[in-house]
Design a protein that fits this description.
α3 (64-73) links the parallel β3 (50-56) and β4 (80-84). 34% of the residues lie in helices and 22% in strands. The chain has one domain (7-116): Rossmann fold (3-Layer(aba) Sandwich). The chain is of the alpha/beta class. The longest helix has 13 residues, at 15-27. The N and C termini lie close together (8 Å).
Amino acid sequence: MNSAAILVCVIDDDESVRESLPDLLREFGLKVEAFATPRDFLQSVLVDDTKCLILDISMPGMSGPELRRELLRRGHDIPTIFITAHADAASREGVVDCLLKPFSDTDLREALKRALNLK
């Protein structure tokens, strides 16, 4: 991907995901920031610059779908890829993709291409 200026934000309460997923996304040539909670992301200065979100569906406090609804309420329609360990929790409403953990690098890359309109 020719996309070094594209900011992707990862929001997941699982520390191992916050450590490993950004490394993979950087290998894809993306700029990445990771957050432990949706509230941390909402309070950051990066909301306006974020071109794609990778969100865990199930997080304490505010779920991925709840964060997406809050962003839309605030006027931010950011392309979103949900990731989840629970297939039954996979809500695809208004999202680019919903990947079941563990997902492959290829599946993630394809979802990112769709989210960012890349070839």
